[in-house]
Amino acid sequence: MGKSWISLSNRLSDEYVHEVAQFLDFAFLNKENGSRICFPCKKCKNRFTKIREDVMLHCLRDGFNPTYKNLTYHGEIYVPFHSNEDAKMLDCGDDNAADEETKNFTKLLRDGETPLFQGCEKLSFIARFL
């Protein structure tokens, strides 16, 4: 799902309205009629839940939260991106002379990326729980 529309300034443009509708189709894909989802607007920042029509209204009126790029609260599975440089930096195999603290930190990062169950990352779950 493309996300360039999130930063569009004209929230009444056909493109923005269409993309918000596409996002809502995705977010409500496996939900029952009358279900609620988090508000991803600038104002609410996924803190409250409402029905589809209310979410659409907020996204058009207030705009989509520009920092919300991984739609994990709405069914998107987060896959972290690591460049080759990141992979080299995080590689703590036997050949690497990294100290024990770095190895432990890297293990924690990798463990945090492992889902608890499909669609629920450990760190995301813990952050929402807290």
Automatic annotation (TrEMBL):
Record domain Transposase-associated: where: 3-76
A Pfam short name: Transpos_assoc
InterPro entries: Transpos_assoc
Protein name in the entry: Transposase-associated domain-containing protein
UniProt source species: Erythranthe guttata (Yellow monkey flower)
